[in-house]
From TrEMBL:
It comes from Paenibacillus roseus. It comes from the Bacteria. GO terms for biological process: transmembrane transport. It is found in: Cell membrane. Keywords: Cell membrane, Membrane, Transmembrane, Transmembrane helix, Transport. One of its GO terms (cellular component) is plasma membrane. This is Sugar ABC transporter permease. Pfam families: BPD_transp_1 (PF00528). Belongs to the binding-protein-dependent transport system permease family. Residues 67-280 form the ABC transmembrane type-1 domain. Gene3D superfamilies: MalF N-terminal region-like, MetI-like. Its main location: membrane. It is a multi-pass membrane protein. The chain crosses the membrane at residues 7-31, 72-92, 104-124, 155-176, 211-233, 259-283.
Length: 292
C-alpha cells in the first residue's frame, strides 16, 4: 500500500463514525422520503400509491405557499448576518487588552442550545419583558409591543434572534480569514497613500471572498432549514405569520399524520434548496472565490 492510499484509508477510518451517523440520520431519511412522497402513507392501515396527487395538493394549498413565502423572507437574514459578522470580525481583529474576552462573549450564543436561547428571548420579547419596559419608561411607546403575538413583528423578531445567535459563529470564520491576510499587503497599500477604508475594500475584502462564499452558502441553508427557533417561540403563529417550511412539513407529518403529503412538500423544498446551493456553489467556483 503506497503512502497516499494509506493516508486516504486513515482519513476515512477517522471519518467513519461521523459518516455512518450522517448516512443513518440524514441520507437514509432523504432517500426513503422520495418514494414516500408518491403515496398516501398509513402507519396502521394500507399504504396507497397516489402518483403526483400530493404535489398537486401542495401547490393548491394556501398554507404551503405561506410557509414558502416565510421561508423565503427568512433568507433576508443571510446578507444582514454576513455584513454584521464581517464588521464584528474587523472590530475584534485587534490586539487590544481584553479582546479575547469579547471574542468569547460573542461566541457563547453559538454553543448555547437554540431552545434555551428561544426561551430567553421569549421572556425578553414578552409584553412585560425588558424591551417593552425600557421603551415604556423612556416614553418611546404608549402601550406594549406584542413582538411574538403581532403578525407585523413576529417573523422579524425570530429573524433577529437567528441573526443574534449566528453572529459569533460567522465572526470566528471571518476572523480566521482576516488573520490569514498578509499584513504586508495592507502596510504596502497604506505606505502608497491608501486610506484604511480603501485598503479594506480593495485588499482585505477581496481576500475574504472564499470565506464569504462559504459562509453565505452555509447561512442560506440554515435560513431555508430554520425550525427550532420557530417551534420554540411561536409554533408558526400568530395566524401562520411565522410558519416556515420545516415546521409546516413537521406539523403535517406528526400532527396530521399525513406522512406522504409531508414528504412531498419537503421534497419540493429540498429541490429549491438544492438549486439555490448549486447556484451559489457555481458562483463561488467561477468568480466568487476570486479564482475566476
Amino acid at each position: 500500500m503506497n503512502k497516499k492510499l494509506r493516508l486516504t484509508f486513515i482519513a476515512y477510518f477517522f471519518m467513519a463514525p461521523a459518516l455512518i451517523l450522517v448516512a443513518l440520520f440524514v441520507i437514509y431519511p432523504i432517500v426513503y422520503s422520495i418514494p414516500l412522497a408518491f403515496t398516501d402513507y398509513s402507519a396502521i392501515g394500507e399504504t396507497h400509491y397516489v402518483g403526483l396527487d400530493n404535489f398537486k395538493r401542495a401547490f393548491q394549498d394556501q398554507g404551503f405557499w405561506i410557509a414558502m413565502k416565510n421561508s423565503a423572507i427568512f433568507v433576508a437574514c443571510v446578507p444582514v448576518l454576513q455584513i454584521l459578522s464581517i464588521l464584528l470580525a474587523v472590530l475584534v481583529n485587534t490586539k487590544l487588552r481584553g479582546i479575547v474576552f469579547f471574542r468569547v462573549m460573542y461566541y457563547i450564543p453559538v454553543i448555547t442550545s437554540m431552545i434555551a436561547i428561544s426561551i430567553m428571548w421569549s421572556f425578553i420579547f414578552n409584553q412585560d419583558g425588558i424591551i417593552n419596559s425600557l421603551l415604556l419608561d423612556m416614553g418611546l411607546i404608549k402601550s406594549p409591543i406584542y413582538f411574538l403575538a403581532d403578525t407585523k413583528y413576529a417573523l422579524f423578531s425570530l429573524m433577529f434572534v437567528t441573526v443574534w445567535q449566528g453572529l459569533g459563529y460567522y465572526m470566528m470564520l471571518y476572523l480566521a480569514g482576516l488573520q490569514s491576510v498578509p499584513a504586508e499587503l495592507n502596510e504596502s497599500a497604506m505606505i502608497d497613500g491608501a486610506s484604511k477604508a480603501v485598503t479594506f475594500f480593495k485588499i482585505t475584502l477581496p481576500m475574504l471572498q472564499p470565506y464569504i462564499w462559504f459562509c453565505t452558502l452555509f447561512s442560506l441553508l440554515a435560513a431555508l432549514g430554520v425550525f427550532d427557533v420557530v417551534f420554540a417561540m411561536t409554533k408558526g403563529g400568530p395566524d401562520g405569520a411565522t410558519m416556515v417550511m420545516n415546521l409546516y412539513t413537521y406539523n403535517k407529518a406528526f400532527q396530521s399524520f399525513e406522512f406522504g403529503y409531508s414528504a412531498a412538500a419537503g421534497l419540493v423544498m429540498s429541490i429549491i434548496t438544492t438549486l439555490f446551493s448549486v447556484l451559489i456553489f457555481i458562483y463561488g467556483r467561477k468568480g466568487g472565490s476570486g479564482n475566476g
